TrEMBL record:
One of its GO terms (cellular component) is bacterial-type flagellum hook. GO terms for molecular function: structural molecule activity. It is found in: Bacterial flagellum; Secreted. It comes from the Bacteria. Belongs to the bacterial flagellin family. The gene is flgL. Residues 326-402 form the Flagellin C-terminal domain. Keywords: Bacterial flagellum, Cell projection, Cilium, Coiled coil, Flagellum, Secreted. Residues 4-140 form the Flagellin N-terminal domain. This is Flagellar hook-associated protein 3. It comes from Marinobacter salinexigens. The lineage of its organism: Bacteria, Pseudomonadati, Pseudomonadota, Gammaproteobacteria, Pseudomonadales. Its main location: other.
Length: 407
């Protein structure tokens, strides 16, 4: 027969009561916190999975902040470029108006005055700052104002050519900025002509314009030259040479003052009151000019060019025609950049949707592992309370049993 001492009865009873108390306390904690797993010992496997899910949710949250930042920066840049495009469109309308030959000097002065105001507006847009005060078009030099006026009053780019990139998911990056040099400065310039060496000081070139892009490309299959030199020869013919020294075809080859001719798809007219051999002119084919410089030159021409002479009138007409091309090129440059930004914003939006779905999925799994089932927990609490009370009553009765009670 096995002997059970009073000490064993007391120890066993107390241990059982402690176990029931612990279970009851755990259930109460689950109900109060709403979590089934409050510490690793509650469910080691679930606790490990919950830890990994917490890390995944933290990663997603970080990328979601980056996505919001990227979306805000790109939206702000897109809005700024749209404002710049609208301003340039208004200047273009004024330029067309200025081309009206019936305008007086005062009319041109009024147009130039409004253009100056629009130019200031364009500079303000180009110096747009984000919420943190950084200039969005200054590249990496966010603290540096993008455009400032130099000693002559011309707007000059101050930033660098850096492009900021932000990671919006593992291995997924998106540019969130564009430097102002690429948008506002490196704008293709209208083809222009100027004298290089004049035997006759009254000679001038005018009406320079591209009439056949295919012919221009055919003349230069590999690369465009920096310029073309046109010279009047002693025999009355025209000689055209590109930057590589190659002789180009001139049609018609015989020079006639005031009559247009074509070189490599570019039409132009040389006017020389007294034709003289040796007069040279340079045609700038692929120049670049800032949109600010284009507008500044236009304003200066409107206020200074004298249309009372034939040369002045031709220069004015060329100014209007070339300015329209320059403004169109600036608008096209901005529209292309807006299209590029739109593609980035689509990528950001797709990543944002993916991260949101990932967050929802991870939270659902985490909830299944960690959140308590209140109905089950409350039922367990009632049962555990009943068992604990029964155990306490049983222990109280057993603890009173003693051999001395029978003596």
């Amino acid at each position: 027969m096995m002997r059970i001492s009073s000490q064993q009865i007391f120890s066993s009873g107390i241990s059982r009561l402690q176990e029931l108390n612990t279970s009851l306390n755990n259930t109460q904690q689950q109900i109060s916190t709403g979590k089934r797993v409050n510490q690793p010992s509650d469910d080691p496997v679930a606790a490990a999975r919950i830890l990994k899910l917490d890390q995944e949710l933290a990663r997603v949250e970080t990328y979601q902040r980056n996505v919001d930042l990227a979306d805000n920066r790109l939206s702000q840049e897109e809005s700024a470029l749209q404002s710049a495009t609208d301003i340039i469109q208004r200047i273009r309308e004024l330029t067309v108006q200025a081309g009206n030959g019936a305008l007086s000097v005062n009319d041109r002065q009024s147009i130039a005055s409004e253009m100056k105001e629009r130019l200031e507006q364009l500079a303000t847009v180009a110096n747009t700052q984000d919420a943190s005060g950084e200039y969005i078009f200054s590249g990496f030099q966010g603290s540096v104002q993008s455009f400032k006026q130099d000693a002559t009053g011309s707007w000059v780019y101050q930033g660098d050519e850096g492009q900021r990139v932000l990671e919006i998911d593992d291995g997924v990056t998106v540019p969130i900025s564009d430097h102002g040099k690429g948008i506002f400065v490196n704008v293709p310039e209208a083809i222009t002509g100027e004298h290089t060496n004049l035997v006759n000081p009254d000679a001038y070139i005018s009406g320079v314009k591209l009439v056949s892009e295919a012919d221009l490309a055919a003349e230069y299959p590999n690369a465009f030259p920096d310029d073309i030199t046109v010279e009047i020869q002693a025999d009355g013919t025209l000689l055209a040479i590109d930057a590589q020294g190659d002789v180009l075809t001139v049609e018609p080859a015989t020079y006639e003052s005031g009559e247009p001719f074509v070189v490599a798809g570019i039409e132009m007219t040389i006017t020389d009151a007294v034709p003289g051999a040796g007069d040279q002119f340079t045609i700038d084919v692929n120049g670049k000019q800032s949109v600010f410089a284009s507008i500044e030159n236009l304003i200066a021409g409107l206020t200074t060019l004298d249309k009372s002479t034939g040369q002045g009138n031709s220069a004015y007409d060329d100014l209007i025609a070339q300015s329209l091309v320059n403004l169109d090129n600036a608008q096209e440059s901005m529209v292309l950049k807006q299209t590029e930004i739109g593609g980035r914003m689509n990528a950001v939006e797709s990543t944002k949707t993916f991260l949101e779905d990932s967050s929802v999925y991870s939270n659902e799994i985490r909830s299944q592992l960690q959140d308590v089932d209140y109905a089950e927990a409350i039922s367990n609490l009632s049962f555990q309370s009943f068992v604990l009370q029964a155990a306490q009553q049983s222990f109280a009765q057993v603890s009173q049993l003693s051999l001395f009670d029978r003596l």
